[in-house]
Specification:
The protein is mainly β. It has one helix and 27 strands. It has one domain: Beta-galactosidase, Chain A, domain 5.
């Protein structure tokens, strides 16, 4: 059994940033930090038996607060966008942070992806769990919330379980925000345009110019949005919520990503009803990333398992209101071979 390793990675607001590394099959190593409960690196041997980073990140922690577009973070209380940061609950109106004008994005300025979490490791099941508390009124949200995420590496499969409890009704829709790229370092340009994508989906949610759902659900059949049969991604610009046909972990595959150059394959299962697919068409990071790579357009693709964006304002979307008697639970599994 591989030993879980902790290392100091940096400092954030007088707290140590600790990097915890889990080890699995085929030299898989996943390094996670207590800042944002974020995956900092995920390496695996490719078909050439060379170590391959399959996510975007930084080797210098100081770059994260300033430059990271949520690389590898756990997002909360709500992932994605809420229209103008407004919603009503039990006839009371709430106003959230507007951190992506004119909307609220990824939990706002005090979102979980930008904070230090408590954590504990478990050598027995090769896992690390992170814990965070959010007080009533933070970011404009009602209720006191306690959330936790468990990362468990089983051979080459990462199992992610996210839970949250509250003392009153409040919206919670959490998610994990990796940017994946299965390319080898020597491949140029470094992007995911040659990757093949499959989604177990035949519908997506229409959005307006601010990427807020209109409420209309559209079919993908016959459109460039149809990934129900695996196809090369190319340079289509994606920042869209795909509605999954099946949402049962370890039953129906939810998504698959494949790089034909080095044969690496990512498989994803989730119990969530949707996947936000974002292929970073305008990414332009000013500092070097992992392996001294500069991240530009299409450098990574996010497969964000979650409930639908702005669900709190659409009654026919999957509900995201949790309560003391209705806690939050989310399970996603990702295997890269």
């Amino acid at each position: 059994m591989n030993k879980i390793i902790n290392n100091t990675f940096g400092r954030f607001k007088d707290s140590d940033v600790i990097l915890t590394s889990l080890f699995g099959g085929n030299n898989t190593c996943i390094s996670i930090m207590n800042w944002g409960a974020s995956i900092q690196n995920w390496t695996i041997n490719n078909s050439e038996n060379r170590s391959n980073s399959v996510v975007l990140g930084f080797e210098n922690f100081d770059y994260y607060p300033k430059y990271s577009p949520y690389f590898g973070s756990i997002i909360g209380r709500t992932i994605n966008r809420i229209n103008r940061g407004r919603f009503s609950l039990s006839e009371k109106k709430y106003q959230l942070d507007i951190n992506r004008p004119p909307n609220h994005l990824h939990g706002g300025e005090t979102g979980f992806g930008k904070l230090i979490w408590d954590f504990e490791i478990n050598q027995q099941d090769n896992s690390v769990s992170y814990f965070i508390q959010s007080k009533d009124g933070e970011g404009g949200y009602p209720g006191n919330v306690e959330a936790n995420v468990k990362y468990q590496l089983d051979d080459q499969k990462l199992k992610i379980e996210i839970r949250a409890t509250t003392d009153c009704e409040t919206p919670i829709n959490m998610g994990q925000h990796n940017y994946f790229n299965l390319s080898s370092v020597k491949e140029r340009p470094y992007n995911i345009c040659n990757h093949y994508l499959y989604l177990n989906s035949s519908k997506f949610t229409e959005t307006n110019q601010h990427l807020i759902p209109t409420g209309t659900i559209l079919p993908t059949l016959g459109t460039e949005m149809d990934f129900s049969i695996s196809k090369e991604i190319g340079e289509i610009e994606l920042d869209d919520n795909f509605i999954l046909n099946k949402a049962v972990v370890n039953s129906e595959l939810s998504a698959k990503l494949y790089n034909p150059d080095n044969k690496l394959t990512l498989k994803l299962w989730t119990d969530q009803p949707g996947i936000q697919v974002y292929n970073s068409p305008k990414l332009d990071i000013k500092v070097p990333g992992l392996n001294n790579i500069t991240y530009k357009n299409f450098a990574g693709i996010c497969l964000e398992a979650q409930k639908f964006p702005d669900s709190v304002n659409h009654n026919h979307f999957p509900p995201i209101i949790v309560s003391p008697n209705n806690p939050y639970f989310h399970k996603t599994e990702i295997e890269i071979l």
